[in-house]
Amino acid sequence: MPDSLVAKTVSVFREGYGSARLKADAFAGLTVAIVALPLSMAIAIASGVTPDRGLYTAIVGGFLVSLLGGSRVQIGGPAGAFIVLVAATGARHGLDGLLLATAMSGIMLVAAGYLRLGNYIKFIPYPVTVGFTAGIAVIIFASQLRDLFGLTLSGREPGPIIEKVATLGLAAGTVNWGAVLTAALTIGIILALRKLRPHWPGMLIAVAAASAFVALLQLPAETIGTRFGGIPRGLPSPTFPPFSLEKAAAVFPDAVSFALLGAIESLLSAVVADGMTGRRHRSSMELIAQGIANFCSALFGGICVTGTIARTATNVRAGGTSPVSGMLHSIFLLLFMLLAAPLASYIPLASLAGVLAVVAWNMIEKPAFMALLRSSYGDAVVLLATFIIVVFRELTEGIVIGFALGAVLFIDRMAKSISVGETKPLEALKEENGEKEHPVVADDPDTVIYRISGIFFFGSAATVGTVLDRIADQRRNFILDCSEVPFMDSTAANVIEGTLRKAERTGVRFFITGARSQVRRALRQHDVRPPRVVMRASIQAALESIRSEKSA
């Protein structure tokens, strides 16, 4: 079996797994479980299902994502990105239809993994990912307005955001100030602890404090107990959702949307984890694991599972070293559910809405959003088009249209960048597939030099990024020559910035030589500028700087 289809758990135990790593993974798993406990319930409620189904998802799906996945530190569970799709599917087809669509999406993801389709996710332009993430965040926040203000509605809350805001506006006279105070307290505690005690589990502490606040003052705020009757103490027996060809055909479009978003979200999360750990995930195995996790989550009554960026980052920061931390996070959640289920009845819904309001704010990549707006007219159009369509139309439609606009923009840029007899064909950096290398020999053993030739854009960014990640920490000085790069887009500049961050962590001095004005402008928009990086006109000038510093 090729390595690309081997779970990282197998690789970890082949390397040798001792008590020291188990201790580190246990601490990380407990930390992530504390974060995931309120978040899983909040996402489930926002998705239109009962809070226990969020816990089923994190326990069953999260365990399988870690056990079978292609990332060492990925944490799986219910994600805010799915709230809109899950809520809409449940409203159209009921709970049975939602579970069937989740199971079908799992089968699609397994097939995508075996067909190596994960390799094509890298072709999604950076402005599209930033735009749809921001759009999802806006929708999540809008979905929490009812519980944030404790509004009373006469009928079902509409799904489309314009109708939703209009309906909530008509109910403004029913504001429950107890709910408002509870939500404000929750948000305030989370933000205060993030600043004063960043390593404390702010979300859990905030929810616990808000629950005590409501109970002691006997505020008229709705709780999990009053709306849902509490949560069960344990997992249900696995049962396949009712199946018929007619039902499968009806939910098929939703299953495709689940699979597409699940693939994008999980692989983006794995890429973030790679940047934090210096490792490389196996995209095909990651999709297979996500597929199995979604299928089994549906069997236990859970909703969609995907890799979650916030919980994965928490796992890495807490010291998680292997998939064992993710499996332990699910086991700890199960123990919490078995031992503390009665206490969940006292959690105010306004407090969970406050948690999701903070999550929505954090989801928006604000520096990246503003940088893309300033970088170029084309990138700004792709970003805003994706964002607006996701907010006011539909998530999958936003991704497709954003990608199409990005492709048209690239074609336009290619046409403007190529000139006969002057522009050389694109020569990517050396990679395992045998593509050509453009070598330059340095006379300093502590210095490595690589040259990129041709147009550096989102289609080649992943390939170049793989090589740069591998070589950027091998020497004390790393020179990247861009003299033959006529154009660089925001995705490519973001890749360079990621390589620069890795070089900074490992104490490597980063030089960029021969960059043209457009390339420099793109790099500056992503904070690739002095003093973080040394800019020189040529390779020779960079080498002379290194030699003069050594002789000084």
From TrEMBL:
Gene3D superfamilies xref list: STAS domain
Transmembrane spans: 26-46, 58-91, 97-117, 124-145, 165-193, 200-219, 255-275, 287-310, 330-359, 371-392
InterPro entries for this protein: SLC26A/SulP_dom, SLC26A/SulP_fam, STAS_dom, STAS_dom_sf
Gene Ontology annotations of biological process type: transmembrane transport
Keyword Manganese attached: no
Cell location: Membrane
Main subcellular localisation: membrane
Recorded topology in the membrane: Multi-pass membrane protein
Annotated keywords: Membrane, Transmembrane, Transmembrane helix
Record carries keyword Transferase: no
CDD domains: STAS_SulP_like_sulfate_transporter (cd07042)
PROSITE patterns for this protein: STAS (PS50801)
GO CC annotations, alphabetized: membrane
SUPFAM superfamilies cross-referenced by the UniProt entry: SpoIIaa-like
PANTHER family: SULFATE TRANSPORTER
Protein name: SulP family inorganic anion transporter
Annotated source species: Sinorhizobium mexicanum
